Amino acid sequence: MASPRPDLAPDSALTRAEMEELQREIAAAAVFEDDLSIDPAHLSDPLAETASDRAAPIVAGVDQSFLPEEERAVSAVVAMRAAGDEWEVIERVHAVTPLEIPYIPGLLSFREGDAILDAVEELSVEPDFYLFDGSGRIHFRQAGIATHVGVVLDRPSVGVAKSLLCGRAVDETDGLAAGERVAIVANERVDAPEGTLLGYAVQTKQYDSPNRHVNPLYVSPGHRVGPDTAANAVLALSAGYKLPEPVRLADAYADEAKTEHVE
Length: 263
Fold this sequence. Notes:
By secondary structure, this protein is α+β, with helices and mostly antiparallel strands. It contains six helices and nine strands. The protein has helices spanning 16-29, 41-44, 108-121, 145-153, 227-236, 245-258; strands at 58-66, 72-83, 86-98, 129-133, 157-161, 168-169, 181-185, 197-202, 217-223. A nine-stranded mixed beta sheet has the order 3-2-1-4-5-9-8-7-6, with helices on both faces. Helix 3 (108-121) crosses helix 4 (145-153). The protein is globular. The protein starts with 15 loop residues before the first helix and ends in a 5-residue tail after the last helix.
């Protein structure tokens, strides 16, 4: 799949200041509301029957693993589609790409974005919707890896992060019940007006025990998806696990693919 915006692709040769300026340009180009070619209800309940003649949307999960003692990333994409009352994997691809820069908080896409784009190019199908292991709008400059890659591909995308990079929760997030969500809004660390809705802390799973608990995921729009659709989709796709199924399977496939390249 060719990129509609190659001019915005991550470039590890840029200076830090240039990377941050490019992120601001990406955030300005991003659409943080629903601009989908599919019915958002199909994401809130992907297994529901539909009266539409169109096939169920293709949802892709993206995650990465790293080769031990080598500066290479293994980027995995798993494309899935609802079939009746269950999911089927229709394609799995991966790419191995050298890592040119170290991890720098807020600049993850410049370290790992090339590997993701290389993997996406291997797909023979065209996903309607991407879920990334990483941030979207919940980012210092509103341009996490889900936003950066989503804008470059111009595809609807969502960021699913395990920790809160910036912003603040409007309420307590500890001990949420499965299905609950708490808004995450901009604070002084975010290049956005104070109080701007960035996304949600989403509780996809919780133990029924006072001695064990699951932390929420931090879900935010990447591109062409609104915050509520993003949270609804992650909840609907979580299938009893903490991670939404496409990301969970991409995580497992990245580890599986890594074994093919260990020398």
